[in-house]
User: What shape does this take?
Amino acid sequence: MRQLTAALAVAAAGILVTACGGGNGGSTASSSTTTTTTTPSKPPLAQAALANLLLAPADIDSALGVTGSKSDRPIDAPQNDSPANVFPKTYKFPDECMYVTGAAEAPVYAGSGYTAVHGEHDVASLPPGSNEPDPDMTQVVVLFPSAAQATAFFTTSTQRWPACANRQDTVPGEADNPEIQWKVGPVSTADGVLSTTTTVTASKNGTTMSQSCQRALTARNNVVIDVEVCRKDPGNVAVSIANQIGGKVDKQ
Assistant: This one.
């Protein structure tokens, strides 16, 4: 069970995120207005302001419905834990799905013009004996030189995420690795927040574990906010957190 849990955690960390509740393969991708709440009239935030934008532990507890959440890893650069890196080399993860993988992935932000990254991975432990993966959250703020550049990154994302909407596939198990099925739900752009849901299921020796995640992306002023929440039912939590962080940006 420990190996299966670890494999599922790795897979979930490298697979997508969020907004229309659970990965429904039969739904159609939705796209409303892509207007963000960016406020170009305000001066751009400086890098020093990023440290005050993340949610505090008490706010994370409230958002996730847990107690005792804590950061177990700071994030000061784009990440390299995408499915293309963690899945077996014999499996080809779809290139068009790279944009909807985990928050702040290096291949997605490469060449975008960002100047700084600040974030953390937060986790909360469930009671002993629980068969569910511990809830976790990744919250990242990415600084761009101007609001226009942050908005451009968001706009590009709204154009690329739908290519992986309502997709699913199975990664064959091999050696000590379980079989992993991943699903991506509809992609939504509502009220300036891009989101989608993903579900990862790992199976080995008759044992199955699943975890669902929601990912949310938005831009405020010259900051892109990238959030992923994984728990039994992520609902619209990542979108809510992205908006909370956005509110902090708006007050700067």
In short: The radius of gyration is 17 Å.
